[in-house]
Amino acid sequence: MNAIDIAILGASGYTGAELVRFLANHPRFNIEALTADRKAGHSMSAVYPQLAHLKLPELVTIEQVNWDELAACFCCLPHATTQEVLAKVPAHVRIVDLSADFRLEDVAAYAKWYGHEHFAPDLQKEAVYGLTEINRSEIQAARLVANPGCYPTCSLLPLIPLAEAGLIEEDDIVIDAKSGVSGAGRAAKEGSLFCEVTEGIHPYGVAAHRHVAEIDQELSRAAGHAVTASFTAHLMPMSRGMLASIYVRTKDGATAADLRDVLEKSYADEPFVKILPPGGIPQTRHVRGSNLCVIGLADDRIQGRVLIFSAIDNLVKGASGQALQNMNLMFGLSETMGLDLVPMFP
Amino acid sequence: MNAIDIAILGASGYTGAELVRFLANHPRFNIEALTADRKAGHSMSAVYPQLAHLKLPELVTIEQVNWDELAACFCCLPHATTQEVLAKVPAHVRIVDLSADFRLEDVAAYAKWYGHEHFAPDLQKEAVYGLTEINRSEIQAARLVANPGCYPTCSLLPLIPLAEAGLIEEDDIVIDAKSGVSGAGRAAKEGSLFCEVTEGIHPYGVAAHRHVAEIDQELSRAAGHAVTASFTAHLMPMSRGMLASIYVRTKDGATAADLRDVLEKSYADEPFVKILPPGGIPQTRHVRGSNLCVIGLADDRIQGRVLIFSAIDNLVKGASGQALQNMNLMFGLSETMGLDLVPMFP
Amino acid sequence: MNAIDIAILGASGYTGAELVRFLANHPRFNIEALTADRKAGHSMSAVYPQLAHLKLPELVTIEQVNWDELAACFCCLPHATTQEVLAKVPAHVRIVDLSADFRLEDVAAYAKWYGHEHFAPDLQKEAVYGLTEINRSEIQAARLVANPGCYPTCSLLPLIPLAEAGLIEEDDIVIDAKSGVSGAGRAAKEGSLFCEVTEGIHPYGVAAHRHVAEIDQELSRAAGHAVTASFTAHLMPMSRGMLASIYVRTKDGATAADLRDVLEKSYADEPFVKILPPGGIPQTRHVRGSNLCVIGLADDRIQGRVLIFSAIDNLVKGASGQALQNMNLMFGLSETMGLDLVPMFP
Amino acid sequence: MNAIDIAILGASGYTGAELVRFLANHPRFNIEALTADRKAGHSMSAVYPQLAHLKLPELVTIEQVNWDELAACFCCLPHATTQEVLAKVPAHVRIVDLSADFRLEDVAAYAKWYGHEHFAPDLQKEAVYGLTEINRSEIQAARLVANPGCYPTCSLLPLIPLAEAGLIEEDDIVIDAKSGVSGAGRAAKEGSLFCEVTEGIHPYGVAAHRHVAEIDQELSRAAGHAVTASFTAHLMPMSRGMLASIYVRTKDGATAADLRDVLEKSYADEPFVKILPPGGIPQTRHVRGSNLCVIGLADDRIQGRVLIFSAIDNLVKGASGQALQNMNLMFGLSETMGLDLVPMFP
């Protein structure tokens, strides 16, 4: 079969390198172009020696991309820049955007959370929120998919079916989320230094993390009315992995078993979402390097309260893996193509 | 001044080694005996080479201890064993017990949580719960102090003054706690292996962690009625440090500023408890190796909800440091004696 | 094409789990049996939850294996036990043994290093040392392949071609090797605990590490006379990865460029061994999770001395990956089958 | 007794913060000024929250320092800047300089290794190399002490007495050294990011690390003739700690026992240098946070070769701890003042 030529814009970050890892053995997508403005002219192996044994195009600037050759692109550029770049991409090119730039339907909400007007409000209108398991049919038909943030992916996969089923009190959702450092990207920042991160934990972006805008938007859609979740992010001394510990009150005496039942039905045929049996507790180690989301539930000691634990690899299901899952879907391929990765442990 | 001769029972664990670290430069307490049944006959430096430059007595069995020479002891033995051993300690010896064996006033509660009848119910009656800043006068007069668990210490220091002040809804307290691995001790268990702990996080003891019995007991005392907290422990890929992220609803429109005000007043003169100003966020790295507890508060996005973060070193304020603080108090010494440790970072 | 049915003996250790990871997507080998005496009756997913989404046979005892159904087996049993078990495996079953039990040709050498007589001296005679790139033709024809140790693999891949070429002084080879903790396996030992390994480094097995017997044996074969290398192992605070820093004196004024030339020629067509260009420095991160060995060379400041750095993943090229590479070879399959793994970074 | 007022120049780096940690409880030295040009006007606690409970002067620029009030200063500025700044410090102020700017006696060697002419050649003449145990009498009388680098300290403490005793072949010294990341300082560099450092190891500065100039200089002095050591640095996935694995050939059949004998005699009365008995193997964990250097020796399998392992905390004996030890010495105080720190483990 013919190869489908694609580009990765902003390939020098961790999410770009992850896409290359998945695409290296992909039977249909062919990496035709890799861009990285500041690294243009260098080989990808100079930036990521672990990819040196692969045959990859040289890094170029976005201006050097020949769009005529391309059927699609993954966009791993920083926010704001993304809006400016994607507004100029020709209409025949389908896009999965890993930035936050097209995740919020309401451009006013975007302006509030990101501190500037939306630079591509027209493009926003055609963007589809790319939580694959939830928005599958819309994604399939979309030209532009806004790939969800890692925290929203990890939190929404368990919460949306429960909110839709009306089983939880939507005004009493507490999400305590923990992420590996790779979520902060490869930028050289004091806060991401080894010595500043190892052997410790701390919350960050307290009551102000931008990802909550996505969580609220999608929970509200699922519940059918405005929902505000209590969300707190914590930085973990590890590269990869994300755990959301979610504390909910149930309606009408529903128990963990009832909630598990809903999730099992919702995700029964999903290759990447696994609901654990009673007593099962997810660890981020159990999904490392894979596109899996593993969810466990337990009754709290307090009647009417249920504990939900959701684990993903923030760089895979939380970013590049879901992006490829979406792109597969958009091109009518099996969603698991290139993503049949067994978690790596230890 | 005369030295006060003390023993450390069960000195071969991490909490025993920490006590030695603090006592090495203590002006008044003299380590007269170190016990470790399975390591008896060995030097402490064979078990902990980092202590090799100190002059320390050889490890002996508990039977070899000459109680006549001793004024006090720290007990770092496992639970159940502790009750049997301490029941036989002569009455002139004052005790700080680091196990869980005497923390629950109600021996029936003990039996429920620990799976066997209490072996020393009479001794239980004279035990005092050793949260220093809260129970100071009782501790001072006590013969037997039950040193609090690490999770209770970290959670109760912020919560007790708030519960006493009636500022929070006691039936809606969610504690998401994260601990370093050293809390599991030095026992060779698969779950504590490097490969099983590093680069990942997971909850454990879900809805069944024994420390909640202490938390409930002390919160109930503070509130004046029965309180059950929602508590979940997580294992972190780090040796030391504990963070409790506490999610509360306030009463009567109280805000983070109101709660901070209460805590600042409660702990204004405390050398070891620090309340951060608005915007301040604790990291476990900021207390590593010290007896400090640092607490920060913030208003949630949801009105009427406040986020409280409390950080300690689980081996210090959460174990051996508070134990020494209590022993200092019991002997009329400055609580900071031997504990003027500056946190080590990086 | 027909599936080739194989068993993994001792599947509950890390090397067994790694084999499952590689075989999950292998087009020809089918896992017909998994043994783990102490875990028999359990599912593999109970022991390794990260494998829960795979269809795998239940764990059984070795006695329960139906050898008639099998064409081959991987043996991940501990040493000594391995000799006893493999001596009873029917002759039609081809074996790749990951233990040290058949690596030393000289059974007297085995007895000296492992402290007991060899239990299967006849079987030893047909064993082939499984360093794939060096012994390819012998391995292809072998019934029993002794898969090399991780330290020998990492050290010998650069050294054997140089010794064969007569370019280095064989009596002045210093190997300073560093390994991740997974090399110690999943056994619950104090020395492998998180707190005992993290944030530190130390040498171990000083002047007495058993792997040197293999290194000496193979270097002697390559050099054509008895060679004893100076070898020291260090334990690293990481799960995976191995680096050998090798210090050699060259003959006849040979430089790093001369040595690189020899290695480039030796490994020009090898899919898994990569020689870096001048200035290239290997990191263990660049091979993590893959079957690659990456080698870099540099002239020392001292004339006539060359520095050689060799990096592998100890669980892959140093264990299970090379084992599969060998098994592929033995069955006439492409050596890369199931092993086209892109290194995972970060 | 009167306080001795001192300043720390460049207090916002890790070595500055370590000095504050040691001086917090120092009976004689009083921190009168802390400089940090880019952070001037901020409190030290804004830069290092772990120091928030200490009473410290606000950060100022170097220009704001009132030298009349000061008896001494520690200089933690970057190289080159240091020469310019220290050349202007009034003559009554005694200095311990933690940079590399005054460590090389030969200004031509400095120019070669650091890429520019020495900016303060006159000041260089009065600088004393501050390896305390080796140069004690010169340090005591010095105005300007050039505090040694971490790698030289770790390597030279075992090697100098052996070179002086003529027990080792000086032209065959191989030093394989491993360091924690804190040695790279707090600068935001890609290579020091958590994701780039954790779970891996690699050599760096191969055959070109600037610290070898110091090692050569001091080994040559000890041997009485020019010595060039083979030295390779490796970056470890840990914050603190340094291990030098040193491979030597001995003269006249000397064994590890002979070498140990020399070191034991050299350091018999030293509070900070400990020679382990036969079989003793140092771990960096055993010195963490302390000013100790622990050294172990073993005979190699190859006759005439000895393995030497030397462990320090790179930020303490390798930097700020030795700096304070030197300052104590310069002011006639006990060298251990403020440095009686028990290593922190775990």
Percent strand of chain A: 15-25%
Measured on Cα atoms, how large is the radius of gyration of chain A?
Answer: 20 Å
Highest CATH level, the class of the largest domain in chain A: Alpha Beta
At the fold tier of CATH, the topology name of the largest domain in chain A is Dihydrodipicolinate Reductase, domain 2
SSE arrangement of chain A, N to C: EHEHEEHEHHEHEHEHEHEEHEEEH
Q: Summarize the main sheet of chain A.
A: 7 strands, parallel
Classification by helices and strands of chain A: alpha/beta
Q: Which range best describes the helical content of chain A: under 10%, 10-25%, 25-40%, 40-55%, 55-70% or over 70%?
A: 25-40%
Number of helices of chain A: 11
Number of separate domains of chain A: 2
Low-confidence region ranges of chain A = none
DSSP strand tally of chain A: 14
Interface with most residues? A-B, 47 and 47 residues
Cα distance spanning the termini of chain A: 37 Å
CATH architecture of the largest domain in chain A: 2-Layer Sandwich
CATH superfamily of the largest domain in chain A: Dihydrodipicolinate Reductase, domain 2
